[in-house]
């Protein structure tokens, strides 16, 4: 892959708010063609309008990352709309804070489905194309909670982020010669630092 983000097609999951939306604005400002995907289409469209008003290129795609075939369809739609995909940022994530003793299995399921399986579904949708084109970059949002267990309260969240970090490292070992793999161990202070990292 050539260096620099100008002209690259970047998919950001969870691009309707927070780090995802801010990253979309920044990358568009630097000349990337940005595809943002999340469940709330109205919020995505606000980000797209914002980017367009500053002269950038962006499109929105309604997506629930827990739906494997929907993730495949969005990647296919982006390739149809932009001609290719260069970078996938698996950013969609949830962090409900609750002690394990409350046994909220619904929240455990949600974190596993969005943070972990959503990331895997993104990889599944983008990786074959990246390998075929001989280039691509997968960026997974892990966390400091993926290095040190965030307990009490964030134990299951940490479990999902440890898994995201492990999968990123394993994927890098497996495909790193053709496809770049990055895991970002973000913490609360990283929203601003993203402007430096990217
Ligand atoms: N903010 C922080 O301090 C840190 C954040 N992180 C990680 O960074 C990532 C982004 O965090 P942050 O910006 O704070 O989070 P936000 O809560 O601001 O945004 C989360 C995004 O994920 C999307 N999302 C949630 N569920 C789904 C789903 N099922 N399908 C598609 N999109 C979904 C939301 O969009 P919608 O609801 O429209 O679907 C939203 O755009 C997460 O993975 C988080 O774990 C890591 C360390 C620190
Ligand atoms: N705030 C972070 C943990 O410290 C996170 O969202 O992962």
Automatic annotation (TrEMBL):
It is an enzyme of class 1 (oxidoreductase). Its EC number is 1.1.1.298, 1.1.1.381. The keyword Nucleotide-binding does not apply. It catalyses: L-allo-threonine + NADP(+) = aminoacetone + CO2 + NADPH; 3-hydroxypropanoate + NADP(+) = 3-oxopropanoate + NADPH + H(+). Keywords: Oxidoreductase. Pfam families: adh_short. Residues 8-194 form the Ketoreductase domain. NADP-dependent dehydrogenase with broad substrate specificity acting on 3-hydroxy acids. Catalyzes the NADP-dependent oxidation of L-allo-threonine to L-2-amino-3-keto-butyrate, which is spontaneously decarboxylated into aminoacetone. Also acts on D-threonine, L-serine, D-serine, D-3-hydroxyisobutyrate, L-3-hydroxyisobutyrate, D-glycerate and L-glycerate. Able to catalyze the reduction of the malonic semialdehyde to 3-hydroxypropionic acid. Belongs to the short-chain dehydrogenases/reductases (SDR) family. This is NADP-dependent 3-hydroxy acid dehydrogenase YdfG. It comes from Acetobacter cerevisiae.
């Amino acid at each position: 892959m050539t260096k620099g983000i100008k002209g690259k097609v970047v998919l950001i999951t969870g691009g309707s708010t927070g780090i995802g939306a801010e990253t979309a604005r920044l990358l568009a400002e630097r000349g990337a063609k940005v595809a943002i995907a999340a469940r709330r289409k109205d919020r995505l469209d606000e980000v797209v309008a914002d980017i367009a008003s500053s002269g950038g290129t962006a499109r929105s795609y309604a997506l629930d990352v827990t739906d494997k075939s929907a993730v495949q369809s969005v990647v296919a739609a982006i390739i149809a709309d932009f001609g290719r995909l260069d970078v996938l940022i698996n950013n969609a994530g949830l962090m409900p804070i609750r002690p394990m003793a409350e046994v909220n299995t619904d929240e455990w399921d949600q974190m596993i489905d969005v943070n972990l399986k959503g990331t895997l579904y993104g990889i599944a949708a983008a990786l074959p194309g990246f390998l075929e084109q001989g280039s691509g970059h997968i960026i997974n949002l892990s966390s400091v909670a993926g290095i040190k267990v965030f307990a009490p309260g964030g134990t299951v969240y940490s479990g999902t982020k440890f898994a995201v970090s492990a999968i990123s490292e394993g994927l890098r070992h497996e495909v790193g010669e053709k496809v770049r793999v990055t895991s970002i161990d973000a913490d609360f202070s990283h929203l601003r630092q993203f402007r430096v990292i990217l």
